[in-house]
Amino acid sequence: MTNTEMIKDMLGRQKAFDTEVFKKHNITSISREQLESALFDELGELMHAQKVDWCWWKFSQEPKDEAKVFEEYIDVVHFALMYEIKFGSGCYMDEDIKWNYNKLKTDLGFGQAYAFSCVISLTRDDNVLAYIIALGLHLGYSIDEIYQEYIRKNEINKERLKEGY
Predict the structure, then answer these.
(1) What angle do CA 59, 71, 149 make, to 5 degrees?
(2) Which residues of 54-76 are buried (b: 16+ CB within 10 A; e: fewer)?
(3) What's CA 135's distance to the chain center, in Å?
(4) Torsion sign over Cα 84, 88, 94, 97
(5) Can you tell me the distance from the alpha carbon of 119 to that of 133, in angstroms, rounded to the nearest whole number?
(6) How many angstroms separate the Cα of 161 from the Cα of each of 21, 23, 25, 68, 105?
(7) What pLDDT sits at residue 144?
(8) Is there a contact between 77 and 150 (Cβ–Cβ < 8 Å)?
(9) What local confidence, expressed as pLDDT, does residue 58 receive?
């Protein structure tokens, strides 16, 4: 599969999952503000999973768990996909990701917290998904790895939904 095909497949899987979540919770839609809050919360969890990189004041800081970092990143991907489905217009092609990768590198010059906060400002110009994919590339994941981990976590989320999570 090409990068675009993998992203389109994730979008299809996310749309199907969202339909089930909405049905189970008896809701018909979510607002932009709700989705922005979910993105912000998941970015916070991703930042927290990397706390050892920036928490200088604690001797008892746990070592970084790379699997946890990846899982938290994939949770961000889930909400970025939701954002693209609900509010996006297809800004996730290779050239969009490349442009956002360059933007991310500039944003990271101001620090990781700044780059993470840029995700919310990107909800105004339709580059959320491409920026989140670029973030994954920056973290060292290939699009294929992102795709495979997304599928794994999506299956876990489906099970959680069945169990009343």
Answers:
(1) 150
(2) eeeeeeeeeeeeeeebbbbbbbb
(3) 9
(4) negative
(5) 11
(6) 7, 11, 10, 21, 36
(7) 97
(8) yes
(9) 83
b vs e for 147-162, b when ≥16 Cβ sit within 10 Å of the residue's Cβ? Answer: bebbeebbeebeeeee
Three-state helix/strand/coil letters over 29-73: CCCHHHHHHHHHHHHHHHHHHCHHHCCCCCCCCCCCCHHHHHHHH
H-helix segments, the chain? 3-24, 32-49, 66-87, 94-108, 112-122, 128-138, 143-162
Question: Nearest Cα to 90, choosing from 8, 1, 14?
Answer: 8
Q: Report the alpha-carbon distance of residue 121 to residue 113 in Å, rounded.
A: 13
Tokens matching residue 16: 């199907």
Chunked mean pLDDT (size 10), the chain, 165 residues: 95 96 92 92 94 85 91 96 91 88 90 86 80 94 97 94 83
Contact 94, 3 (CB under 8 A): yes
Report field, pTM of the whole predicted structure over 0.70: yes
Task: List Cβ neighbours of 130 (8 Å cut-off, separation of 6 or more).
Answer: 91, 92, 93, 96, 97, 99, 100
* CA distance linking residue 99 with residue 96, whole number of Å: 5
Integer angstrom CA distances of residue 164 from 26, 28, 159, 160, 161: 13, 19, 9, 6, 5
